[in-house]
Amino acid sequence: MRDVGLAGGILVRKPENRALIYKPTTIGSGKVIPAMVGWEFSMHPGFMEIKRSAPGFSAYLSRSPTPPTWCALLANKEKIDLTNLARDIADAYKPGPGAGLPVETIVEQESKWSLDETIARLQALLKAANVPLFAAFDHDGNATRAGLTLRPTRVLVFGNPKVGTRLMQAGQSAGLDLPIHVSIWQDERNRVWVGYRGIESIAAEHAIKDPETVAAMSKAVDGLVRKAVNVYDY
């Protein structure tokens, strides 16, 4: 009934008005912004989600098109991103909404933008935050030059030496995983994902006992990726 009410013709009868609410926005320059009236739209046709935070509360609502599947979550704490939890719940009901990665060690978020736009947004955020970008790898380009095929797959390597050094002082072997490697790839359904090893996972693997630095670094990386992949600022 919720699906019929929101996406069907009960609450919004005219198809043109439903298209206005439930489809991406095209601005004057012709650029398509994958959002409208709070909804955000991924590269997966028909999938849409909305998430908000208010003093003391966080909320999330998403819709998958085939079959119509809704996921609604509420939390009694503000500024909690419930996206990945919602994807895991939906994935348990019908496999497909998630990236299929081990959530215990890998943090992944689906981007609302194309692969190139996602990379450009992340690079701009790094520059604005004065975070050095040490390297960028074009894996699909390298595959093409080797006579092979690979869906678009890129990696950005970045980090703050002041923070990374503190982690390596606590566990020198962490240099195997630092600076941060963020992978941006397009899957077989043309969805764009951004993924990286969780900072807590890296710290645990290298026996790093510096919870304050780990928490600060995790928050910083999560924030950068969240701003890069979403339309609205959460």
Structure description:
With 234 residues, the chain is of the alpha+beta class. The protein has two domains: 1-98, no CATH class; 99-234, 2-Layer Sandwich (TATA-Binding Protein), CATH 3.30.310.70. It is 35% helix and 26% strand. The protein is globular and about 60 Å long. The chain starts with a helix and ends in a 5-residue tail after the last helix.
Please write out the topology:
Layout: H1 2-6, H2 15-22, E1 25-26, E2 32-33, E3 35-36, E4 39-41, E5 48-54, E6 57-64, E7 69-75, H3 83-93, E8 106-111, H4 115-128, E9 133-138, H5 139-145, E10 153-158, H6 161-170, E11 180-186, E12 192-197, H7 199-205, H8 211-229
Antiparallel strand pairs: 1-2, 3-4, 4-5, 5-6, 6-7, 8-12, 9-10, 10-11, 11-12
Which descriptors apply to this entry?
single chain, 234 residues, alpha+beta, TATA-Binding Protein, 2 domains, 5-stranded antiparallel β-sheet, 8 helices, globular
Quick rundown:
About 35% of the residues lie in helices and about 25% in strands.
End-to-end gap: 29 Å
- The radius of gyration computed from the alpha-carbon positions, rounded to a whole number of angstroms, is 19 Å
Tell me the CATH superfamily of the largest domain: TT1751-like domain
Order of helices and strands: HHEEEEEEEHEHEHEHEEHH
Q: What fold name stands as the CATH topology of the largest domain?
A: TATA-Binding Protein
Spatial shape: globular
Helix percentage: 25-40%
What is the tally of beta strands? 12
Reported for the largest beta sheet, the result is: 5 strands, antiparallel
Mean pLDDT across every amino acid position? 87
The assigned CATH architecture of the largest domain is 2-Layer Sandwich
Q: Which spans have pLDDT < 50 for at least 5 consecutive residues?
A: none
Number of folding domains? Answer: 2
As laid out across the biggest beta sheet, the strand order is 3-4-5-6-7
CATH class of the largest domain reads Alpha Beta
Structural class: alpha+beta
The helix tally amounts to: 8
